């Protein structure tokens, strides 16, 4: 009997040790496609220094990242907006207490096809475009072509900020085409001469043309000094104060001389 018990104990110890080997050093990150390039850049660098740590990252939008945090399927939720009170309530009901970490700054930039001669739009014009009140580019100094309005879907943190700062909480008109990510908006606008969309700073490239807003270009300088009107912080949320590898990764991410120096390489604005 003693030998049998010892054998069972040895097997149980072996199984526990094996489980620890399987799960130790794994970090799951889900959420915002705006924060995605930052998370990918940081994970790449962090895993080079800490090869025993494996980090998996996926997008899907800020709302989906926070849902994953609430249901316990992610260690870190990337979000381009702050968590909502009802989301906090749902998390607390499940015994999870969201903790926010600001990891970078960003601004949301309106983009058009490179062939569009337009250079600037006012905040009022942007709102009118997305309400469907301005329908032709010629009405705001562009060519005589019907405007195709492209927006993010409602699970997006970028949409939430646009809805608050540009739309003043009025709804985007039903004729707008919805896209699930920043990358999808860049692709859609780059293929349509009549389109307008909006993306985070890190997604600007030569396939689209960035417009100034009220005469101000979205940039690191105008984001930090507050002159660009559609700016925001970017977040990573954990369910409770992080521990172990998750804590080490967050500490790396926010450290002025470690992770923060790579934020600009990802196309965004460091906090320091």
Q: Which spans have pLDDT < 50 for at least 5 consecutive residues?
A: 1-24
Shape: globular
CATH architectural type of the largest domain? 3-Layer(aba) Sandwich
Portion of residues in helices? 25-40%
- CATH fold-type name of the largest domain: D-Maltodextrin-Binding Protein, domain 2
Number of strands: 11
Assign the CATH class of the largest domain.
Alpha Beta
Strand content: 15-25%
What's the total helix number?
A: 9
- Average predicted local confidence, pLDDT: 90
Specify the structural class. alpha/beta
Main β-sheet description: 9 strands, mixed
Instruction: Please give the radius of gyration in angstroms.
Output: 22 Å
- How many angstroms separate the termini? 65 Å
- The helix/strand order is HEHEHEHEEHEHEHEEEHEH
Key structural traits:
nine-stranded mixed sheet; 9 helices; two-stranded parallel sheet; globular; D-Maltodextrin-Binding Protein, domain 2; 272 residues; alpha/beta
Walk me through this protein's architecture:
The longest helix has 22 residues, at 2-23. This protein has nine helices and eleven strands. With 272 residues, the chain is α/β, with parallel strands linked by helices. It is globular, with a radius of gyration of 22 Å. It folds into two domains: 2-105 and 234-266, Periplasmic binding protein-like II (D-Maltodextrin-Binding Protein, domain 2); 106-224, Periplasmic binding protein-like II (D-Maltodextrin-Binding Protein, domain 2, 3-Layer(aba) Sandwich), CATH 3.40.190.
